[in-house]
Amino acid sequence: MKTDTSEARLIRVRGRVQGVGFRWSLAEQAVRCGLQGWVRNCGDGTVEALVWGGAEAVAALLFWASLGPPAARVDELSVERVDERPPGFQRLPDA
């Protein structure tokens, strides 16, 4: 019997994360890790993303998101388990 080892996480990143390429870099990292989901800028200055895929790939992306691209400063990374699993990976319009 096969077990599904995929995980889905909704993440919100606070700090200097808009205007520094965070959303674009996160999307690139997610695709590199083989993940699916979406990422968007939020009106409160945060970046929000839903990612899903293999547990190790999700963990790798969460580690990357805790640091972000060179110009970013991550003050807080919140992570929530979710059931949603959208296909592909998209950069959504700002929320």
What tags apply to this protein structure?
2 helices, alpha+beta, globular, 5-stranded mixed β-sheet, 95 residues
Task: Put the structure in a nutshell.
By secondary structure, this protein is α+β, with helices and mostly antiparallel strands. The protein is built from 2 helices and 5 strands, in the order E-H-E-E-H-E-E. Strands 4-1-3-2-5 form a 5-stranded mixed β-sheet, with helices on one face.
Task: Give an overview in words.
Belongs to the acylphosphatase family. The active site is at residues 23, 41. Its EC number is 3.6.1.7. It comes from Uliginosibacterium paludis. The protein is α+β, with helices and mostly antiparallel strands. It has two helices and five strands; from the N terminus they run E-H-E-E-H-E-E. It has a five-stranded mixed sheet, covered by helices on one side. A hairpin with a 5-residue loop joins strand 2 and strand 3 (47-54). 27% of the residues are buried. The model has no long low-confidence stretch (mean pLDDT 92).
Mean of residue pLDDT? 92
Low-confidence stretches: none
Share of residues in strands: 35-45%
* Biggest sheet: strand arrangement: 4-1-3-2-5
Give the radius of gyration: 13 Å
**Distance between the terminal alpha carbons, to the nearest Å?**
41 Å
Described by the principal axes of the CA atoms, the overall outline is globular
* Separate helix tally: 2
Structural class: alpha+beta
Strand count, sense and barrel status of the largest sheet are: 5 strands, mixed
Give the helix level as a range of percent. 25-40%
